[in-house]
Records
---
Amino acid sequence: MLKQISKYIWELSKENQMNVCGRIYGDETLIKILEEEEKTNWSSLRQLRNLASLPGIQKYAIALADVHPGYGAPIGSISAFDLEEGVITFATIGFDINCGVRTLITGLKRHDIEAKKEELADILFREIPAGLGSTGELKLTKSQIDEVLEKGSEYVIEQGFGLEEDLKYTEEKGCIKGADPKAVSDKAKERQFKQVGTLGSGNHYLEVQFVEQIYNEEVAEIFGIDKDDIVISLHCGSRALGHQIGTDYLQELERASKKYNLKILDKELVCAPIQSEEGQKYFSAVNAGINCAFANRQVLTHLVRTSVSKVLGIDEKSIRVLYDVGHNTAKIEKHDINGKMKEVLVGRKGSTRGFGPNREEIPEKYRKVGQPILVGGSMGTASYILRGTNKGMLETFGSAIHGAGRVMSRVKATSNFRGSDIEKTLRKQNIIVKAHSLKGLAEEAPEAYKNIDDVVKIVHEEGVVEKVARLRPIIVVKG
């Protein structure tokens, strides 16, 4: 049963096997969507109940305003587990490990690229490997892949793909500890030999954007952005390696669930105790996938720099990283649990880390105002830069929305829309779209997503994040 406890917070009552309540951040429109979903086999509320029933879950199972059904647990959900009594599950991470967003500050204004935006779109489309099965210029051996999995962005920067300064503005400084390449199958590594530095397909993209509106001048100045600035955002993850890790460990975690007699309410919630051999092995593999995604976005950053420099004649080093943060992760963090600071395993499934002020994990430059949160929109709509708040630390384990959230399946979108029509419509809005697949363009039609402004409004007004800037696309490159 849903109970409204504030303007934008709804509580899913604890019932049956649930160990904690569910908590949903949404307006009445979203709640109606979720209630309609319950009449089908693909329900976010049902998945949230199932998530709340897992052993060792802390405080509540959370769904943010971009929530929609996923494998086992909703996309747009957050959960935290006691390290001794809790479990680690595929469902709270997903296949695309550390899919995330990196935003680059170019030092250019909107008028600086107007005359050359067609040329810029062409070179980015040509130089950024994208699409299903795409391969990049970085070809790796098995031992080199192991180094990527251990060292993340550090390794590819050592190979000349980026600047040391980039690490400072990457979550975990581009390399999370505890990654063990031996926990990753040879098949997963083989699938990644040629894919480091590729955008991929689906909802992954590169966008050249301009800052349309500033909401908080002080924070925007600290982040280094101003109205009409040109920024470039990359949205992608660990590619085939992350998907193969998920595929491999679904089987291992299924065996572990039976071995440890864990009661699960969905076959995709297969899990293992965090401290078990199987749990630790999976966690190590996830960390390896996280590092792979950091390296992937780092190589793409290098390609963006060289492309922009060729067209606009600016120094590559003048393009700097605003921030890079992932939204499909499992991480051990300290949080306030019932008034006491405690280490827990936080799963963010389609949810971005969004730490509030004074957390040591935030780059020193941003620490007093909170972490930048990069929220992608759909093609033709807006994206946002937000900041983390102290209220978010207490209520959402320092987590935030990652995008608008789907309201239409990819299958339904392709039956309702044509990629060529979308391309023409966006061109009329002065947005250049370059896509490797018209079918993929149709799958990602703006109408297939919630209204990003409404989604951001919910979490902003509830105070778990704060708006800093609104971005609008000029060029979109899709797989």
---
Amino acid sequence: MKQSKEIKAAIFVLLGIFLFLIGFNFLNGTSLFKSENTLYAVYDQVEGLQSGTKVTVNGLTIGKVSSINFLPKTDKILVSFTVRNDLQFSKNSVAELYEAGLIGGKSIAIIPIYDQESFLASGDTLRSRIKPGLTDVVGSEIAPLQKKLDTVLSDADTLIGALNTILDDQAQSGLNEAFANLSTTVTNLNTISSDLSNILSSQGKNINTTLENLAETSDNLNQITDSLSRANLKGVITKFESTATSLNLVLSSINRGEGSLGKLIQDDALYNNLEASTKEVELLIKDLKEHPKRYVHFSLFGKKETPYKTVQDN
């Protein structure tokens, strides 16, 4: 009876160990019931790769890294790993070493090739390559950037040195004075802006009244413009042009001496005759005033006529 209990306990222990091995291999992508192929790949460096790391194809775990060691008599690194034997990849497939994450170390991914020439078998050595990781990419990008930055800093240092050489004490004093004047100008502008703001605030009512008056004036101008647009300005202008043309013709005729007015203006003889006639009429009126009896007389018996004498005769 006692032996029966011991046998049962041993069976339970062995069963537990067996289940543990099955689970452990399942988690590592291997199986106790399937044989596996052992493959190899050679790398220049495998920093971050560890034994037990998963081997994947398109993200699917198909095996694990078995060992990492130096290739005999070289500084190359020989990595051996196991994969499932049911995979039908060509032995020309590539074992790519890549970064599994920012802090996850390195892993191996098989890039399968299906060339139908020969399928991989246990003991084959696959072609290898290393995929640049984020650190390598950043390093390769930072190196030229750092070189450019060094060049810029060198140029800036040269420029500053040249400026220090050009700007002596007197020039620096002038720049300081210019900046001081600029500061004063900005202060004055701020003061003017403040005063203007106060003026606008205090005169806001007057400004609004002025703007309203301007708006009213604009409306009146619009009404006047509308009235003018409705008026027959074209007819008035046409009549004015016709009148101006007729006046020009009359003035041209007068300038040529045509007509009475033209002859009066252009003919000196007519002017002289008119002047002489006017003078004689003036003398006649004067004599009539001084000697009315010469022109008006009444006599029953008749009277001898008195001859006319001019002023010169007297």
---
Amino acid sequence: MAKYDFDMIVIGGGAAGLTAAGLAANFGAKTMMVEADRLGGDCTWTGCIPSKTLLKAGKVARQIKDAGKYGLIDGEPNIDFKKVMAHVDEIRKEVYEDADRPEIFEDMGIEVVHGKAAFEDDHTISIQGKDGSKRSVSSKKIIIATGAKAFVPPIPGIEEVDYLTNESLFEIEDLPRKLLIIGGGPIGTEMSQAFVNLGSEVTVIDMAQQIMANDDPELVDILRGVLEDQGVKYELNASVQKVEEVDGEIKVYVEQDGKTKIISGEALLMATGRKANIRELNLEAAGVNTEKGNVVVNESCRTNKSHIYAAGDVTGRYQFTHMSDHMAKIAATKALLKFVPMKIEKNMVSWVTFTDPELAHVGKTEQQLRDEGEKFEVYRFPYSKIDRALAEGETTGLVKIFAKKLSGKILGATAVGAHAGEFISEYAVAIKNGVSMRGIADTIHPYPSWGLGARRAADQWYIKNQSEWSVKLIKAVFGYRGAVPDFSDPDRVV
């Protein structure tokens, strides 16, 4: 008889868990996947899908208001917020039906179990079913993929206030007249734009001096300017002292420049980060190490127990669905095909904040490269020189590429503007496969595609490597009679 009930148990049915379980089954492993709530996890139900659907609704409303820029007539959108939220829910359910429902994974041979899992020892878990049933199962390999949930800091008075997080935001039916958002990261920034475009008065509060702290400051300034023009208000460098609710009005007390200020609103969204879901796992029974509330893993997603791996938000490493998927592939492959050389691609992590304009990044930031003493050039290209951007009235934006001067090796890239995430995807492929700036510049891109902007940005490598003396040499050798270009501007764009 087999020593264990399963070859692989995956705890969690979100982005990381679904990928890990599917891959394990594809390798021929007898697999169980345990999920405490609904398959699909945060991304489908409370994160990526509903937030992007809501952002799209807000964008359409904004386009109606700004129709004049396309030669049409400006209008005032008639917004039925209940219908908007019903649409958000319909899209969530459609994604669930198409990609996440249990039958899809059961058809792969995976046993899908709904219940709360907790370790009994390092090879055994107990599963507490919603119906009160309890079951113990063992497995040769285990992957922890329980994700994370909204973190709400212990602000005085917060427990007496009916606040929102991403886990409750998409269940509301009435549009808040005045929405306060504590947190100027990706969630707070995306939702500030969605709600201001749908008709809310929005104020973003953050203790930092700038929003989107992990992104390029120059590009963040461009995005913030757009959001302010649309009506988002900011209270930055503001330390929250307490919150209270009085007669249905929420008051946030902040300290700015040594003075106390009260900011009032109808609803409060806490966009203050996330914390790993480990509290009920009983990791001590398995001997799995944690640090700062996260499961500790190495670059192959393995914990201190050689047969237990972890992937996604539960590790605290990256808060992106695509990185959860990436880590899950590594965890499942390393656990089941032990000697395959796979590690987290930590030097080419990409992310996109899906505001309009989008803010995107891949690889190392400019500040990281400077801190490391790396020698590189910054290649800049404005959206105003992308013909498709001109045609569609989307000229606000900038692409910056960080690359080696002589070889054109790309070390990182960042962009703000329409379809910036697609530009970044092209640079991600280039970094992964060693394609240089020259390689992109020499690749034919269809005109007038948005992707041509990625190529034209890469063209700047040729421009920057050209010099006055080289042009004079060419003129002398071939007897050309034209003028020598003006090289006095180091940031000139062609």
---
Amino acid sequence: MKRILLVDDETKIVRGLKPYFRQAGFEVLGAYDGREALRIARRDQPDLIVLDLMLPEIDGLEVARTLRQEGNFVPIIMLTARVEESDRLIGLELGADDYVSKPFSPRELVARVRAVLRRVEGPPPAREVVEAGPFAIDVAGYSAEQEGRPLDLTPTELQFLLALARHPGQALSREQLLEFAHGLDYVAEERTADAHIKNLRRKVESDPAKPRYIVTVLGIGYKLVV
């Protein structure tokens, strides 16, 4: 049974969501501030965290930043009542895999959680390693290396790298990258792709400001140069 950690300072939201997730077959944990969220995440190792941005003690962005700095790449879905695009992009740059704006439908949130977990797990395919230049992506093992060095990538970052590696030298649009990572029915602003690419460059480029491998193609999107 997959374990979900719901983090929101509004008790009624956490209590209201729990029945939906339990009915969907998840074990549910709850936290109501950032400090408690970190404690539970470290202790109970949930399979996914639904994380509100506005939290007492430690806000959601800092919770995500701390987990990533500790090497914890658990999938994170951000909840936000803020309307500023910058808040969402910051969350994505910190390694969140998706975001949902308040107010939201509990059933939609459950569907988003399932979609993220499907991407993380995937079907048990035959072993396939996609190689492009210094990169090797183990599709079944859901891992990637650069010149033999393991890369600590979020599920979305790994999917972006895999899409680019499958089409070396070919420009892929932001929409194509998002569809490859999230599915054809995924709807998001194209700048979401930019945030994930920015994160990916930090991990694979010696100078992210002057990328050697993941290059911007003006007016189109990005391509992998190998």
